[in-house]
User: What shape does this take?
Amino acid sequence: MGIGKKIIALFILSLTLPSLWGQVIDSPDGNLKLSFDVNNNGTPIYSLDYKNKVVLKKGGMGFVINDSQAMDAGFKVDNIQYDTKEEYWTPVWGENNRIQSHYKEMLVQLIQKESRLKLNIRFRLFNDGLGFRYEFPVQPGLRCFVIQDEKTEFRLAGDHTAFWIPADYDSNEYPISTSSLSQISTLMDDVRKEGLAAKAPALGLVIQTPLMLKSIDGLYINIHEAALVNYAAMCLNVDDKTFTLTSHLTPDKAGVKGYIQTGSVTPWRTIVVSDDARDILASNLILNLNEPCKLTDTSWIKPCKYVGVWWEYFTGGGSTWTYTDAQDVVIGETDYTKLTPHGHHGANTTHVKEYIDFAAENGFDAVLVEGWNEGWENGGGYLKERVFSFTKAYPDFDVEGLHRYASSKGVKIIMHHETYSTASDYERQLHDAFHFMVDNGYDAVKTGYVGRLIPRSEYHDSQWMVNHYLHVVKTAADYKIMVNSHEAVRPTGVYRTYPNWIAQESARGTEFESFNDGIRPDHTTILPFTRLMGGPMDYTPGIFEGDLSTYGSNKRSSTLVKQLALYVTIYSPIQMAADLIENYKRYPEPFQFIKDVAVDWDKTDILEAEPGDYITIARKAKGKNEWFVGAITDENARTATIPFDFLPDGKKYIATIYEDGKDADWEKNPQSYHIFKAVVTNKSVLKQKLARSGGAAISIVEATGEEGLRGLKKIK
Amino acid sequence: MGIGKKIIALFILSLTLPSLWGQVIDSPDGNLKLSFDVNNNGTPIYSLDYKNKVVLKKGGMGFVINDSQAMDAGFKVDNIQYDTKEEYWTPVWGENNRIQSHYKEMLVQLIQKESRLKLNIRFRLFNDGLGFRYEFPVQPGLRCFVIQDEKTEFRLAGDHTAFWIPADYDSNEYPISTSSLSQISTLMDDVRKEGLAAKAPALGLVIQTPLMLKSIDGLYINIHEAALVNYAAMCLNVDDKTFTLTSHLTPDKAGVKGYIQTGSVTPWRTIVVSDDARDILASNLILNLNEPCKLTDTSWIKPCKYVGVWWEYFTGGGSTWTYTDAQDVVIGETDYTKLTPHGHHGANTTHVKEYIDFAAENGFDAVLVEGWNEGWENGGGYLKERVFSFTKAYPDFDVEGLHRYASSKGVKIIMHHETYSTASDYERQLHDAFHFMVDNGYDAVKTGYVGRLIPRSEYHDSQWMVNHYLHVVKTAADYKIMVNSHEAVRPTGVYRTYPNWIAQESARGTEFESFNDGIRPDHTTILPFTRLMGGPMDYTPGIFEGDLSTYGSNKRSSTLVKQLALYVTIYSPIQMAADLIENYKRYPEPFQFIKDVAVDWDKTDILEAEPGDYITIARKAKGKNEWFVGAITDENARTATIPFDFLPDGKKYIATIYEDGKDADWEKNPQSYHIFKAVVTNKSVLKQKLARSGGAAISIVEATGEEGLRGLKKIK
Assistant: This one.
């Protein structure tokens, strides 16, 4: 279609939609409308409406590159191409076994009138939101360049409620604050005081994505990005007078925000929108904007449930990652067999065998072992280029013996590569580390990036490190190894492309239960709306011992039953039962839910959701007629409404319902629970009480006959 | 020995050597005397005398660490230990097959009176000079720390003549200036204007090591360092009023000069001294201060002579490293087979075969091929993390076919890994790159680091990069690969420890003959006193075509015969015959010397030497009764005196003498040569005329009988 015809098409659109302006496309269902034009300055501008409500007002787009060269003005539209696409695809693992991708696309080709500089913007409008990215076409006069600033504006229509954490180039582990945009400035200084292992807070009023917003008139808006590859992670500058958010790319330490080559594209900027919060959680927009799976063989990628030598390091019981009290060990030179062990090393062969036994007895797939390898005596990174060996075990950790022992019981051991952020040294050891894993039967690794980074030019979320994480994942795929990265840049759906990137942390997880600032009761009702928008989180739930103060530490943030519900409400294809063996042995009844719950799903139904308040989700286990429901609430007790219409029609099912005890309360009586079985059909609706920061967890199986139903309560 | 006895010992020394002070040790031959003490501020101070002349006046030692913490004052001597050692060792390759190491050692253990901070200084005094290093003992209260400054002073006794290049954290390729110390400041600005691919000149009056100095009273002093490992390269601040040099470590871009852990040691600071310049060149002090070879099998390490597809890229003939004119190629994505070749790619299969044929016909071991791999279209680095593939050849370079072809002719192909200083990406590809080499029959690689560095926190000579170069060499050793690194930090004898580090460039080499600023006639008479003090240089001599202006470029700096002499005067276990095949075919007679000359030696004799003026060296080929002599001069013609007393007694030898033609002159008639054979014995002394920037090259074999001597001139 030539330019002439397009102008006519636009004219017709203008007649039919007089409130809009410029070039307009709408979503397949017509609810979302995107407008685009170039203003008098030649700045590309766009706006977004949802059911005749303004999501984003006219906001600018573009860049400043190199030495203050404008790539955000002086443009005219050279050409526009439209497209529509609908397809279905099947993820290797996920919340659903079939995902629809249906969008209308507008590719705008811009050219600067004077410099002839070219820039393309590709918009994709789905029913659940908008994605757009910049594309830098190959052109004369521009080849490799640096980004001084990305100038993408998200001009919100009002002083929305925001669920936010401060921008920090090195951490995503801040507690989530809930406030109006205009209140952020009064809270920011205090929030930034949070004690974290590595901190590089952005200056000024800057917050992170995924950012969840709610407008007074009931719109839910989520801003994030998809397919973050070879680009810095985006934060958002907040103008709290105009409620305009502007992209703020993570710089390197020289202040450069991107090293770009023409022929490449940016990540997608994503705006997920609905007037129903459940649609935000159900959205597949970010996944749909990522590239399809690039691995040809994915048969070795397997979701799993695991236990591990981990939580004991946080509970104050004395168990440590370190093997000795030695100072000044040098990896590759120090002979650990000649050092005196201090006697409280957690990852010793005997103790790991206890975990292997426990995993085998209770049907867990794997045991994570932290503290198995040389180097923990180094205490921290940054001043040392090499902190850890990834191929040498401590003398009391028998790699081969444990491999044999675990194999004989059908259990895997999960490798642990804490790097203390010595990323460059990790790359040096990477092939040897993965060879070592293959040789010793490991097929999954938890990576860690605690502390300040080497290369010292980089932050955790800068372009170089974004490439590092993906380099590790791609190299791991060559060895058929799954990666669960902690303290890495927050996910953006890249796991669709590399599904061996099985999970990430990249947020405040369960470990903070043991730190003084703890976890707030509403935290897990927000996480799915923020951090989890980009991908699964290894949150490590399942803490049964509520009163961590017996270990001289903090108090758990929820009831015991809410911990169960998290296995459903926090999606991840790997889930840890994080508590100590002794605590699970004290509570065998609720532990049964953790043993039963699936980690991979055919279908997910978001039953109830309100960010910061509550979430109720039902999921069908992959390939099985088993369903699991999780419901959680914040610091307020509530009654969840759970319709069982996600079940197939015409059959009876037995639901095992794990509920907070009548006297349960996260602060006063967190461990109180009640378990009962009931008969349900797809007509049943359960009114389920949740205690303060409480929850409910339900496992459902088909009734095999009337026999088993006798005496059970029926839910109507 | 307790502290009491040491004080008595010192007292006796003071009586017998009244001009000295503090703790004194002398060299095995008694010519050098080192004095050490702690002054009133608690600063460690040392001085050095040679035959009753002052080499270094009392100079301070120590550091400033962390946040301005003094580690250069407040000390007292806690203990001193003395030792003496004499041994002989055999290098894997070298200028001699047997090296003596004989030194007296003094280990001073210092402790700060208030902080109890400990610092050790280890001195080793050889007949040819002094080495000392700092050692950071494991101690309470200090573990990992950063160096803000090293405060080592070299307090010279006068305004010596210096052969210097300006300090530059990214380059050693400046032309060498000759001036008094007090003249440096007037020359510095101009010298720093030199156009180089990467430049990061230090601020102020700072110069590089190896620094050659000559005093008015005839002392030759060389300052450098040995065993540079996990530490930044040292430059020298110049105080041109007091003639004090102070260590100036290469910082990273955050300004930090070292990340250090207690239990480690610094490189050795070396001062080679003599009143005979020949002793400077003959010194093995830097090698002796390096660790013995750490490779168990060295049988695969083989010195070699090579030709290559290289010089044609500099001569303006049109041959290029690139395969296409394509812009914006992306390694791993661009399909080069679909690009249109521009038709003047040097490293094409047909052309490389010509070089293989030429090498086979003329007895060369190997052919270097630059421009064989994808990525040269990227033009430069720094703005791109990945510039090159080290495993994908251009479509017109048949890796397997050339391997077969070369093997069938007994010739190796030398791999080329130009990185454009994308060091982090090179590390990512390293294992794959070396696997590729092994799979395709390569056993040596020329590495390159042109341009600015990634990681962007680093300079070519900063600590991280020092570790990088060694990481590459050590990893290469695992694959039995030899490394010839260009644009890497200048060598410090580490090749003793890792003899697969077969050579380096790290100075202004032959390529500059083709650049506008060129090479000065005295350059090669200085290099052995500066750059080569640390190790062999891949200078790539043998340029026969004197008038490069026919290629639109510069004029060669020497006569043709001087180019021959460089194969002897510039030591390297790998030597290139760098010129084009066509030029060697034009001059088959002098080319014979390059074909004959050895690259590994049993014994070396420095016959004449004066930095900046002339060098005459005789060497015996390893394991053969063949000798080679090279004599060169600067811009002045001279007569070299060559005594043949390096030859065994009682026999007659046939010397083939390659001399400048009578009308030879580097500017007017560089290609004029004369070749004749003569009979010599070990009593013979040759007075050999050298043209302006000329030379002489002599190959010597035993006479097998009187037959072959008939008609030959006899040299008395």
